[in-house]
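In this section we turn from sequence analysis to structure. A common task in structural bioinformatics is to predict how a protein folds when a small molecule is present, because the ligand can shape the pocket around it. The inputs are simple: the amino acid sequence and a SMILES string for the ligand, here zinc ion. Study the lines below before reading on.
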Amino acid sequence: MDEKSNPGTLSESSECLFSFGVIADIQYADLDDGYNFQGSRRRYYRQSLLHLQDAIEEWNKESSRPCCVLQLGDVIDGYNAQYKASEKALELVLNTFETLKVPVHHTWGNHEFYNFSRDYLTCSKLNTKSLEDRIVHHPETVPSESYYAYHFVPFPKFRFILLDAYDLSVLGVDESSPKYQQCMKILREHNPNTELNSSQGLSEPQFVQFNGGFSQEQLTWLNEVLTFSDTNQEKVVIVSHLPIYPEASDSVCLAWNYRDALTVIWSHQCVVCFFAGHTHDGGYAQDPFGVHHINLEGIIETAPNSQAFGTVYVYPDKMMLKGRGRVPDRVMNYKKEKALHL
Ligand SMILES: [Zn+2]
């Protein structure tokens, strides 16, 4: 292994099994730079495509090529919808991803739903469910079509799970549908503000329109997959646009029912880490059950002279995130009893 693919703090006996790339919140738009809602962070709408090209170039030339890239959601910005540029912007981003020499798994964020309906996304190239793996004789581990989630095995004994954090949401669904009515009811019960994107005065600030949650059906499915992974002694990586652990995230960015997701995850041994986007600022915390929560820094708020992506190197006893630019390096040890015996 050369110096580049070795983050440097490894014990000499450990051998890298495989690696994967992570990138979040590209939010491309053909617009001049702007600012976030609070006016505190600059957004580089055009530069974001160049940042993506740069990341792909680096992944393509790694001596030991990553097995895949996990795209954590919000590939194009909601502004595209106002300018009727959604399809054009998506095409540019997807054409850029075509130059990546490994598969990319796309997660869906709120900005996907500002531009497209759920039905449109399901038929688009942002639906990468065809890359899922099925577990034979375990129909309970097959996801329903009513949410966009799946799991796959990039390397024996490692399972990756993509979650749909907008399974419960008022975004992307027809206002006349029962699902919309149900989700609007949940949102209004927790948020009395006229502007539902405002968390002002809320005891649970995550109940805003730009967030969403996980249906009981999806959580039951997640529980089944994790039960299988426990039995099969696998290590699991979970990906979701929305974060679920308060210590690692601004509370206004969490999934509506993040506690329900944590309850499922904490009832299993197999989960090593949980990657999310959405916050743009980045964050990290290890929870009391040993799960590492990583919120990746967003491309959109990354200056032209910096970078924001990473490669995760997987070892028998840990995962190591090698961050580029403003993404810091992280060592994610498995819990002692969770070390993989090869
Ligand atoms: Zn988002």
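The chain has one domain: 18-335. As an exercise, try to locate the residues that line the zinc ion site and compare them with your own expectations.
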